[in-house]
Write a structure and sequence with these properties.
This protein is mainly alpha-helical and 373 residues long. The protein is built from 16 helices and six strands. The structure holds 2-acetamido-2-deoxy-beta-D-glucopyranose (4 copies).
């Protein structure tokens, strides 16, 4: 019952999205002539690579199974959606959406360089859920559904389940056979990146300023680790001084909220660094006292930035460039529908980055290991 409601609802949204997409393909960098909208077969081909409903005949229940897992996972703990968004972003940003981030060929050796342990990635979570979904899909149709498609579909469904926009994901991604430690270290924007560095890294991936500002809106949900916030308040970029762009009253507030839990961890610092700090603040907490907005996909992230209350330096930097500041102001000003629409388009674009298709890569049988393992 619930599943069929989901699909009816999906079908309606999908239709309206496809119709609007037909008029905005230019914005998505596709040539209108190369996109075939074929409603009779319910199949959308935006480019030669991925297709709409790739598993239609090889594993027809694949997307339903992912959705059912996500519904349960979000009901258990809605933090999982922010975690998956972060996981997907890190995977797609480095050599494309190929599940390279999931690979662990370290055999327990903490010094072995793998992408999921690379500097910016230490705090990534959600691996267990992807493994769980993969296991269920292997039972249903062995060696058919890629780990990279699971990441994209699960993240998309999580976004819907937390009140975010629907977007019609294309599928048919295949998994890489290696992970990319050095690229992950160098090419992921950092929490202390300035706006020009952030925009440079996004533009290397083909994202416009508007798309970069929109994707930052993922910070609407989930928490920002206190380790990043506190660094900004005391030893910003190793200067030994606070970040001057944090308003004094906001600094006091942040310090109070974060320090409540910070020093209580009994673990040695080396171990502590590997475990995600549970302490963190959400944008909703920051803006809620002065805003009637909800905790999901609305514009409260952008409203916080307009008020100078960005949790990360890289967030607040969106107000330091006239173009991105203007975009933030626009996204903060309506009822959230502009953001949802732009977010759907930007996520769709990100989900297609550098994918492996056809005979490239492989379909891993376990997401953490290449098949040759
Ligand atoms: C939800 O929580 C239950 C009980 O802790 C657990 O058994 C189940 O695996 C969780 N489901 C998901 C999808 O995380
Ligand atoms: C921004 O960061 C980059 C990389 O860290 C640095 O090279 C550049 O000088 C910085 N730009 C400004 C305006 O601070
Ligand atoms: C501190 O811990 C409490 C209880 O575990 C939690 O509810 C609260 O959100 C934590 N605060 C921060 C800033 O993480
Ligand atoms: C981007 C970023 O904040 N990376 C952090 C990842 O974790 C290491 C060690 O815990 C930190 O030193 C980095 O700053």
């Amino acid at each position: 019952m619930a599943v069929s409601v989901y699909y009816d609802w999906h079908a309606l949204l999908r239709l309206s999205f496809l119709l609007s997409l037909a008029f905005s393909v230019g914005a998505l960098n596709h040539h209108p002539s190369s996109s075939a909208l074929d409603f009779s077969h319910q199949r959308l081909e935006l480019d030669e690579q991925l297709v709409y409903d790739f598993y239609r005949s090889t594993c027809p229940d694949a997307e339903t199974i992912v959705y059912q897992f996500m519904r349960e996972a979000v009901a258990n703990d809605s933090k999982i959606v922010a975690q998956l968004l972060r996981l997907m972003f890190h995977d797609c940003f480095i050599q494309g959406c190929d599940a390279s981030l999931l690979l662990d060929d370290s055999n327990g050796n903490l010094n072995h360089p793998i992408e999921r342990n690379a500097i910016p990635n230490r705090t990534i979570k959600g691996f267990e859920l992807i493994d769980q979904i993969k296991e269920a899909l292997e039972k249903e149709c062995p060696n058919v559904v890629s780990c990279s498609d699971i990441i994209s579909v699960a993240t998309r469904d999580g976004i819907i389940l937390t009140g975010g926009p629907f977007f019609p994901l294309l599928t048919g991604r295949r998994d890489s056979q290696e992970s990319y430690f050095n690229e992950a270290n160098q090419q992921i924007p950092r929490p202390d990146s300035n706006i020009s560095e952030t925009l440079r890294l996004f533009s290397k991936r083909g994202f416009s300023e508007k798309e970069a500002v929109t994707l930052f809106g993922a910070h609407n949900i989930g928490k920002i680790g206190c380790e990043f916030i506190l660094q900004r308040l005391s030893n910003f970029k190793g200067t030994g001084k606070p970040d001057p762009s944090v308003p004094p009253d906001f600094a006091v507030e942040l310090k109070r909220s974060c320090n409540a839990n910070a020093s209580s961890s009994p673990l040695p610092s080396r171990v502590r660094n590997l475990v995600e700090s549970a302490a963190g603040l959400s944008y909703f907490q920051i803006v809620a006292p002065s805003s009637p907005s909800g905790s999901g996909f609305d514009m409260h992230y952008y409203k916080s930035l307009v008020m100078g209350r960005g949790l990360l330096y890289s967030d607040q930097q969106l107000m330091a460039d006239p173009m991105t500041a203007w975009l933030v102001t626009v996204l903060a000003s309506d009822d959230g529908s502009t953001f949802k629409w732009e977010f759907a388009k930007a996520m769709l674009k990100m989900s297609n980055l550098g994918v492996l298709t056809g005979s490239q890569g492989e379909i891993r049988s376990r997401c953490s290991f290449p098949n040759s393992h």
